[in-house]
């Protein structure tokens, strides 16, 4: 589940047999309602900032966008391959995601999808990120690598497309590390079972990332 950008509602999926439904629940007064039903598992719904629309995943193969009233449900046009870590830019104009090619020898890449124009473009290649996110102005990305051998938390600068190694995450499941920035981009947080059980770790970034305005 996820909470909408304005904090007034949450969206989540329910499943029964082969059918699932997308639900919206007010966090104040109001009644929960069903937005849409599908004949496959709906996963990871996210309300779109500045728009009355909801993004959701079909496993790791497709992303769909539906209006909050259940109308105009459509599959987004994305690069061929599997999908990981989809996230909206703060203004809701673009959607960033990690593209995982079927050929394991090819690099994982970050893409920008613009639903309003049905376009998709490459942003940067990565050293096999398993998951990632961006800071508030999308000038810097942070990802968790899934390479054989040492596995790192890395910064990737959008303008230069260069990576900077921060530390080893040592997680048994790199795709679950889920690194995120603090609102001012001065710290990252990530999850790892490196010490035997899941815990949240943090690291300061003042030396490498410019401060961004907090919301």
Overall mean confidence score, pLDDT: 93
Helix/strand/pairing category: mainly beta
Largest sheet: 4 strands, antiparallel
Report, as a whole number of angstroms, the end-to-end distance: 22 Å
Short descriptors:
215 residues, mainly beta, Thrombin, subunit H, Methylamine Dehydrogenase, Chain H, 2 domains, 4-stranded antiparallel sheet, 19 strands, 0% helix
Describe this structure in words.
The chain has 2 domains: 1-75, Beta Barrel (Thrombin, subunit H); 76-215, YVTN repeat-like/Quinoprotein amine dehydrogenase (Methylamine Dehydrogenase, Chain H). It has 215 residues and is mainly β. The protein contains no helices and 19 strands. Strand 3 (19-26) and strand 4 (33-38) form a beta hairpin. It is globular. The strands form 5 sheets. It has a 4-stranded antiparallel beta sheet with strand order 1-2-3-4, with no helix packed on it. A 4-stranded antiparallel beta sheet has the order 5-6-7-8, with no helix packed on it. A 4-stranded antiparallel beta sheet has the order 9-10-11-12, with no helix packed on it. The model has no long low-confidence stretch (mean pLDDT 93). The protein starts with a strand and ends in an 11-residue tail after the last strand. The chain has strands spanning 2-3, 9-16, 19-26, 33-38, 42-47, 53-58, 62-67, 74-75, 82-88, 95-100, 109-114, 119-125, 129-134, 140-145, 152-157, 163-168, 180-181, 187-192, 199-204.
């Amino acid at each position: 589940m996820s909470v909408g950008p304005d904090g007034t509602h949450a969206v989540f999926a329910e499943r029964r047999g082969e059918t699932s439904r997308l639900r919206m629940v007010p966090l104040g007064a109001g009644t929960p309602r069903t937005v849409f039903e599908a004949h496959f598992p709906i996963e990871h719904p996210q309300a779109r900032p500045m728009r009355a629309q909801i993004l959701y995943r079909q496993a790791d193969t497709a992303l769909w966008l539906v209006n909050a009233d259940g109308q105009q449900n459509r599959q987004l046009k994305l690069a061929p391959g599997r999908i990981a870590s989809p996230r909206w830019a703060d203004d809701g104009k673009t959607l960033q995601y990690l593209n995982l090619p079927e050929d394991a020898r090819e690099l994982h890449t970050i893409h920008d999808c613009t639903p309003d124009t049905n376009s998709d473009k490459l942003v940067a290649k990565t050293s096999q990120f398993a998951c990632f996110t961006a800071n508030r102005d999308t000038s810097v990305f942070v990802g968790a690598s899934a390479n054989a051998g040492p596995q790192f938390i890395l910064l990737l600068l959008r303008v230069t497309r260069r990576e900077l190694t921060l530390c080893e995450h040592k997680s048994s499941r790199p795709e679950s590390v889920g690194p995120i920035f603090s609102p001012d981009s001065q710290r990252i947080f990530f999850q790892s079972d490196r010490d035997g059980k899941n815990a949240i770790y943090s690291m300061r970034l003042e030396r490498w990332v410019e401060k961004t305005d907090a919301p």
